[in-house]
Amino acid sequence: MINVQSLSYTYPTGVSALTNVSLSINAGETVGIIGPNGAGKSTLVNHLNGVLLPSSGSVAIDGIAVEKKSFENIRKKVGVVFQNPDDMLFMPRVIDDVLFGPLNLGMDEHAAHHAAEDALHDLGLGDLADRPPFTLSQGQKRFAAIAAILVMKPSMLVLDEPTSDLDPRNRKKLISLLNSMAMTRIIVSHDLDFVWDTCSRVILISHGTIAADGQCHTILQDKVLLESNDLELPLRLQQ
């Protein structure tokens, strides 16, 4: 489903974030992207729907190159939930934010309202539809942002640091939600216990390159590998 070939990216400031990264992700996989701060994790996933475009190399989704002329098609397939939900919630009411995507994709207004109400209900936010987003808790904002993506029925869901503002109850709720999905899921996270609970595969990014790519529990139990890349074992494995 995802094919990244020799991807390199340098920011306008001259900082090189990714160097010659190649990987493939199959439909239905759940992949954790881990690594220390500044490793290039968010830069990598921001190439999956055209937030960033390669300095060199290529990215393709379902055989379609990610480039300006394919943005509309790609962004129907790839739903990205940013690290800060406030970056995605900007309308007067929660339901307006969830409606924003479907209406801009040309969905009939009645059908869009029905889909938005269903998405909020499925995430336990039905009674918050008419609330201004700024009145929500951080956990409620997180799930509202997810609803705003899921309502568009993407085939791939990308979440950037999804547990950064969740209490234990909402963290458990998100684990259950992700594990119930059949779509491709890519999770960027420093929360290695969360990755352990939700991912079957892990890609470790370090200094803009892939340091390891393999089975989740194998990589997350490799203390030497993790510590050599400024990470620690998941808390459940620490003694």
TrEMBL record:
GO cellular component annotations of the record: ATP-binding cassette (ABC) transporter complex
GO MF annotations, alphabetized: ATP binding; ATP hydrolysis activity; ATPase-coupled transmembrane transporter activity
Database matches in InterPro entries: AAA+_ATPase, ABC_transporter-like_ATP-bd, ABC_transpr_CbiO/EcfA_su, ECF_ABC_transporter_ATP-bd, P-loop_NTPase
UniProt xrefs under SMART domains: AAA (SM00382)
Location (main, coarse): membrane
CDD domains (UniProt xref): ABC_cobalt_CbiO_domain1
UniProt keyword annotation of S-adenosyl-L-methionine present: no
Keywords from the UniProt entry: ATP-binding, Cell membrane, Membrane, Nucleotide-binding, Translocase, Transport
Localization per record: Cell membrane
Domain ABC transporter: 2-232
Similarity section: Belongs to the ABC transporter superfamily.
Protein name, per record: Cobalt ABC transporter ATP-binding protein
Native organism: Candidatus Raymondbacteria bacterium RIFOXYD12_FULL_49_13
